[in-house]
Structure prediction request, 261 residues.
Amino acid sequence: MRALLTAATGMEAQQFRIDTVANNIANVGTTGFKKSRAEFQDLFYETLRAPGASTATGTTIPTGIQVGHGVRLGAISRVFTEGNRTSTGQELDLAIEGQGFFQVQRPDGETVYTRDGTFKRSADGTVVTNQGLPLIPAIQVPENTIQITILQDGTVSALTAFDQDPTQLGQIQLVRFANPAGLRALGQNLFLPTEGSGAPETGTPDSDGFGAIAQAFLESSNVNIAEELVNMILAQRAFEVNSRVIQAGDEMLQSAATISR
Prediction:
């Protein structure tokens, strides 16, 4: 009976959907997190009578008979809409207003990308992420710095206790991709380019379509709790209905077995 296996694929698909919703809800408070969305495709069709076939009387069949065999997971795509910005009052908390990613360097020298602008100052004054990964280009904050200013174009200046005028430390650069949804998520709010995302394009903040830097702000997760709860209910009900199809198929087989006796 086709219905048993077809409904089983539906249950498996809804399980993936629930897994995706669960991850989104778990990261509702994660800085710079981008929600994911499960996308599905129908499986192959068994053609019992082809549409447009000719009958014995010379007429043309308008629709035909095609029986579907269920559903499968096509992709889990990441949605890169902007999250809300939250004021923190911290000088090294940065949010990107628009397109772009910060560049940071892993211990093996590999460059990875993030929307999480929660930066800190290390013991030697280097601006780093929460995991200690240095920002690229490197920004070195002098000792005795009493104020750090970061403009919308990424220009970083520091005022020390011994100077009346601020000293420019460098400029933050942003990176964008032709297809951000093609980035590979590494965890820890980090992404790695792939063939699907395209090559990184580096530019200056607040110019040529790149986003502006907002100092003392952080970008919140773009997860909408109400939307995720609705998706969870829909997935749960769809899973339940598919299980009932399996139960109905089992009862039909039981009836057929009883008749044969």
In short: The chain has a mean pLDDT of 92.
